[in-house]
Structure formats: structure tokens, C-alpha cells
Amino acid sequence: MAAINHLQTLRHHVETNRMDEYTFAQSLHYFKKYQPVFMWISLVNADNEAHMNHRNVYAEVLASYDNYLDQLFTTLKKMRLDKNTMVVITTDHGRGDDANWTTHGLEYPESRQTWRWL
Q1: In this predicted model, what pLDDT tens digit does every residue of 53-62 receive, in sequence order?
Q2: Is the Cβ–Cβ distance between 31 and 75 less than 8 Å?
Q3: What SS3 state is found at 116?
Q4: CA nearest to 102, candidates 63, 48, 44, 45
Q5: How far apart are CA 10 and CA 20, in angstroms?
Q6: Using CA atoms, how far apart are residues 108 and 101, in angstroms rounded to an integer?
Q7: CA atoms within 13 A on the CB side of 107
Q8: pLDDT confidence tier of residue 108, bands split at 50, 70 and 90
Q9: pTM value?
């Protein structure tokens, strides 16, 4: 954990947002060690990349989320918690589409949809 904490002080995604890879690594470590009854993990790199109009990097970050979920489910299975653990995946908002895919809000009614592949 000390190594991860040190790395996140050296490399940030946007301003003070730490890299999702560090957030996930810390979360998985915490889960294995303490086995909490409830745990919430917030990842932000995909949202940042979308707002910056980095479509290819946005897709790469989403692919990394698939990898994180695979690691999580593999860990649950190894710990024999896979049969009695619920994983809920949410997002804070949808996105516009076409030229407006980088944004969201009332003026973009298409952003009411979430997890829509662009």
C-alpha cells in the first residue's frame, strides 16, 4: 500500500484526481484485508477523458474497467464470496451523442441514457 500511495502522489490523471488504477488497487487490497459488508469505489478517469474529447483514450479506460471487474469477480471467487456478494455498477450521468458526446445536462436530452456505446 505504501508503494501505491507513493505512486499516486507522483502521477495524477487530471489535476488532483488520482489514477483509477491506484484507486482500484487500494480498494481491492482493502477488500481482501478487511472484507467489508459494503464498499463503494468511485472511478473518474473515463469521465475526465470524455469531457476532454479523448474518444480513443475514453474507450481504453472503459476497457480497463472491464479488467478491474474481472479482477474483482476472480477475487470474490477465490475468497468463496462470489455466491453471496452483490456487485452494483452505476454511473453518475449519461452523455450527449455525436458532436455533443463530451457533455451532459438538461440541454442534451440524449444524455439521460447511460452506458450507451458511442
Answers
A1: 999 999 999 9
A2: yes
A3: coil
A4: 48
A5: 14
A6: 9
A7: 4
A8: confident
A9: 0.82
Nearest to 100 by CA among 59, 56, 55, 44: 55
User: SS3 for 90?
Assistant: coil
Q: Name residue, grid cell 457533455.
A: 103
Phi, psi at 117, each rounded to 5°: -70, 135
* Tens-digit pLDDT profile for residues 43-99: 999 999 998 999 999 999 999 999 999 999 999 999 999 999 999 888 777 787 888
Cell of 62: 472503459
Instruction: For residue 76, give the C-alpha cell.
Output: 470474490
d(CA 77, CA 36): 16
As given in the structure block, the three cell numbers for residue 70 are: 474481472
CA separation for the pair 52, 56 (Å, rounded): 11
Question: For the purposes of burial, counting CB atoms within 10 Å of the CB of 24, is it exposed (0-12), middle (13-18) or buried (19 or more)?
Answer: buried
Residues in the chain: 118
CA 48 to chain centre: 11
